[in-house]
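> run fold Trehalose-phosphatase
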Amino acid sequence: MTPDLRGEVDRVAATETLLVCLDFDGTISELGPDAYAVRAHPEALAAIHELMALPDTQVAVLTGRHLDGLRRVLPLDDPAVLVGSHGAETTEGSPELSAADRAYLDRIQALLEELATAPALVEVKPYQRVIHVAKLAETQPEEAEAILARARALDTAGRPVVSGNNVVEFSAIEVTKGSWLAGHKVRFSATLFAGDDTTDETAMEVLGPGDLGIKVGTKPSAAQHRVEGVDAMAKVLTHLAAARRRFVLG
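> ok
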């Protein structure tokens, strides 16, 4: 951790009310070709549990996974807030899809299934359909990229489509990590947000001057601070938990 980042972590740890909002894959868990074989970094998870136990402190995990999928790999209960499908699914309630929304998802799913040469696959989520090529990319990277390119070329009639790590995701509704975080963070005097992927940039962009954004990895980012990987992010969270504990408990 750089001295500048350490100072910023100490600063947000001393705020009156703190929101710690974290992406999952690539941020507190290593990426892997099997989405359900990964687990949270043990040090990161321990720090999260410490933060959850402190007063005036909330931990939220904000992910592109659907909630059921997140719960399969992340053993966190209340008072943690779990937010799936880029903000569309929350424990506070979720939007209803129209008949047109459902018809769109059915159409996109059929088109993606035509493209998904095994072991590429199509994931069905409540508000999205996602084509995954990570396993294919391990042995046939050119074919995997060709499938993603064909997926990106599909007609979405203006509905959202986002590329990520070996995935292209098609959504029936316009919800982003940024739109969810913008509405939720107003309850707190400062927010720390950390993420690794392109989809996390919508959240970085809604952070204010008193907040702290941390990019995990090398992708371009609006974040002012960066760590090299999941191990380094776990150490940031450990430091944050210790500093927050000193501030709120003395």
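The mean pLDDT is 95.
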